[in-house]
Amino acid sequence: MNDVIDAMQQNLSGPINHSGEYVKEVNEIIEFYKFYDGKPDRKDDINDSCTYGQLWAIPDNLDYKPTREIRNHVKKLIHKQARFMFGVPPTLTFKPYDSQHKDSAEQKRTVVEKVLEDSNFWSSTFKAFIDCTVGKRVLLCATILPGQPIQFKYYKVSEFIYSVDPNDCTKLQSVQICYQDDSTVGKMQVDQRWHRWTYTMNNGSCWCLYELIDGLGNTTVVQQPAIDENGNEIEGEVVTTPIRQYFNTKFSQIPCKVILNGGLTGDIRGTSDVKDLMDLANSYNKVNSDYRDALRFRMFEQPVFIDADSESLKNVKIAPNAMIDLKSDPGMGDGTGVAKAQATMLSSSFSFAQGAEIYLDRLKKDMYELMDQPLPEQLNNVPSGKALRFLFFDLIARCEEKWTEWDTAIKWVISIIEESCKVYKLYPELNACSAVQTLTNIVINHNYPIPEDEEEKRKVAVQEVQANVMSHKTYIRKYGDVEDENGEWDEIMQEMDELNNSSNQGYMNTIDDELDKPIEEVKGPKQVAGEGSEEDDEDLEKGGNNHGKQRQRHGVTTR
Question: What digits encode the pLDDT tens for the residues 166-176?
Fold first, then answer.
């Protein structure tokens, strides 16, 4: 984490074209990052005068060294919010406006998920969300290199500046990205190398200027031997070529998206979740440290001797099963010359403990309420998934509020993928150029890691299918682990037909076997039992050859 903060501070002194207000804001954001980190990674950097993050300076004129115990609830709450929101990636659903284009919409979904998987998008988004909640905003940029898939990269607030349309703050007019090459970190400014990308709009198309510059903002150059018309090197002559390139990205928009954390109407800067937690976290750490010192000083009993001879006190040893030769001092006592030495232990009643614990619990509760998260002790013995979801209701509402910004960013990513596939003819093996042109409604389902009453939901869904208020395909799509619900349903119907045909064939074979038996064998038991009817006796008298009636009694019509 210290390396990240050092890089942000280095960017402020770099060649990025920033203003004084921008430097002031980034310095404030760097303090947010330090507070989120808690304390330095290297123990050698921690001393009594260190005020990094959540640490505070210790006075040097005390008889003891006070405790500085950091309980970093801020990082814990920020990480828990990120895991809750992006721990399980959202589910993207593409619903075609024309029902005849279902296959094309499914192919479009395949292309989009392929691009996101190749660029490791969801893993990067999880980390970028933490940066956004701490540092107010992040920049999402799409990069396309020849022969390579689309890449999406996030940038911290110290690595980019931008300007917006004065009539619409959601539209970017220009973006500048600048970051230092890792191989030149720590060198002199002249020897440093910085990558600077500048995006601007020109005649409805986005143009990009790439430059490799030094720490002073000068474009670096490459010197190469001069070549004559015949392709031979000219001795003693060199050609100086600046490392810069100005090219048309062929996009109809700047391939960058600024994602803000919170903010109000017209806000283009965002807010930090750390800012509101700072006062509570500082109070918690200081009170908790004082509480620890109080326990340390009052935890051990202190021996007290009354009217004891000073010489005998020199031989007193405080140890298990130690003998104490305690003698009275005649000069002590009530003045009558009679003194009786006493030995006792002075212990603390810890009367301060309850008040300190109540205050610490209140601070902790306030921090959790500020982040709309339930306390850990509230999650014990939760009876069902529905009750657990109720406890996380405030956090779900908070995440849904943040999703309003991130949903827009994800839909923007999909629009960039569509435009890239059409312009650069990407993923021909997936027929991406044609598939992405399908008009669809994009639905983003947010998946929160809360245990659900899955079995109960399945039972209700089965009842809905039986009551004909839910289709079988919808049930398969919702609860079946299959990609193609149509193929699964066709397979189910085929199996049902096979079972029905097999059952009917077996039934017909049984009937035929019964009909092929002699009449006496079939009707004999009834006659022995005395259950034969007059009609049966009449048939027997006639020789038992009335097969037409026999088949009707078996419920079978002769074909």
Answer: 999 889 999 99
- Token pair of 137 as six digits: 């905003």
Helical (H) or strand (E) element with 346: strand 342-346
Burial of 432 (0-12, 13-18, 19+ CB in 10 A): buried
For the full predicted model, state whether its pTM sits above 0.90: no
Give the type of residue at 327.
K
Tokens 């995440």 belong to residue: 399
pLDDT one-digit tens code per residue, 370-405 = 999 999 999 888 877 788 889 999 999 999 999 999
Q: With residue 526 as reference, give the H or E element that holds it.
A: helix 519-528
Q: Is 248 helix (H, G, I), strand (E, B) or coil?
A: strand
Q: Kindly report the backbone phi and psi dihedral angles of residue 308, in degrees, each rounded to the nearest multiple of 5, phi listed first.
A: -95, 145
HSE (CB half, 13 Å, CA atoms) of 101? 17
**Alpha-carbon Rg of the chain, whole angstroms?**
41
Distances (CA, A) of 18 to 8, 70, 153, 198, 272: 13, 35, 21, 13, 21
Structure tokens at 508: 């017909």
Q: H or E segment at 122?
A: helix 121-135
Per-residue CA distances from 274 to 3, 74, 135, 367, 467 (Å): 20, 7, 9, 11, 51
* CA distance linking residue 284 with residue 222, whole number of Å: 57
User: CA–CA separation, 118 vs 127, rounded Å?
Assistant: 17
- Spatial neighbors of 367 by CB under 8 A, at least 6 apart, are 73, 74, 77, 277, 280, 281, 284
So where are the chain's domains? 300-347, 453-512, 517-559
**169 close to 269: Cβ distance less than 8 angstroms:** no
Distance CA 191, CA 213 (A): 10
